[in-house]
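Fold it.
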Amino acid sequence: MSGHGNRRLRRAALTMLLALLGAVAAAQEQPADEYRLAVGDRVKVTVYGHEDLSGEFEVDASGDVSLPLINEIPAAGRSLDELEAAIVDALQPDYLIQPRVSVELLSLRPVYVLGEVEAPGSYPFHSGMTVVNAIAEAGGFTYRARRNRIRIVRSGKDGEVELQAELNTPLKPGDVIQIPERFF
């Protein structure tokens, strides 16, 4: 392997280590119920005593989770606790008496890196992830990258918002990072 390939591997390993350390720190700071579900998130629903109603589910394009017996439950915009309460409400009293339900977050929607990076695409979100982590996962900047004009497109309650970003800007699940091309 060439010296360039070794440097790339070391840089990728360092980026992963920093992402893992950031994930541990962020997990200690942020309670799980603050996170709001959105399209592409995966959850594990456990209905105690009813394996046939339990399983892993994805928030679909319409923002719903499709569950056995009760069909579509709106999930986008809800916290895990709110989704859990909605499932309990849908199950009782017609199907189960006092159902016990647990909802866990399995995976977050990815971040997307577009433009002047070596490998544009979607990358798994890690808690504590910053712009530089995402760019490193995308193979780094190309020589044409305009490094001082990084933008993030972020979805929120009021629609999409475009933000100017620095390399240390924290990311949220579903963020789209755009690296424009320089002209000189």
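Residues 3-30+109-179 form a domain with the Outer membrane lipoprotein wza fold like fold (CATH 3.10.560.10).
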